[in-house]
Specification:
Elements (H helix, E strand, L loop, with lengths): L6 H13 L5 H10 L6 H55 L14 H12 L5 H18 L11
Helix pairs in contact: 1-2, 2-3
């Protein structure tokens, strides 16, 4: 018996294959060899080879599942971090009165707010102007007790 040591696995695999619909050629051969009590040495070698192949396939499948789960967890963490940054940005808009703190809706109409933010984004400000804005922002953050550290690490 060349498949000794794999009997328990082979029993479970055979049970699983018996209930499977649309069996492959290898599945049918496995069941034919496994259920044959009078196996020749060549049959036993074939069964052993099929067991190795099926166990290798299981290992590959479980590896793929682990990779998928890891990728999914990484993507979920990235989404969580992105959403947190958006939440922080909306908090800044709320602090200066551009978003209603209760409803989360803009206090200006959307087009006006978007136009103002677009103008700010396309503004070429001097280093001196940026320093004044930062000092004003630091004062507002200190006033609210939020702090001046920027968790995103961006300027």
């Amino acid at each position: 018996m060349g498949y000794l040591g794999n009997e328990a696995w082979a029993d479970k695999h055979a049970e699983k294959l018996r209930t499977k619909h649309g069996k492959s050629r290898d599945d049918r051969l496995f069941l034919l060899l496994f259920d044959n009590p009078e196996r020749t040495p060549a049959d036993t070698r074939s069964l052993t080879a099929l067991i190795r192949i099926e166990r290798a396939k299981e290992t590959v499948r479980s590896g793929r599942i682990m990779i998928r789960e890891s990728d999914s967890a990484r993507a979920k963490a990235a989404r969580r971090d992105r959403d947190h940054e958006r939440y922080l940005a909306s908090g800044l808009l709320t602090m200066v009165g551009l978003l209603d703190g209760q409803t989360g809706k803009p206090t200006w109409d959307r087009a006006t707010l978007l136009g103002a933010l677009d103008a700010l984004a396309n503004l070429t400000a001097s280093d001196d102007q940026k320093r004044r804005w930062k000092a004003r922002g630091d004062a507002l953050l200190d006033k609210t007790g939020v702090g001046t550290e920027n968790p995103s690490g961006t300027a």
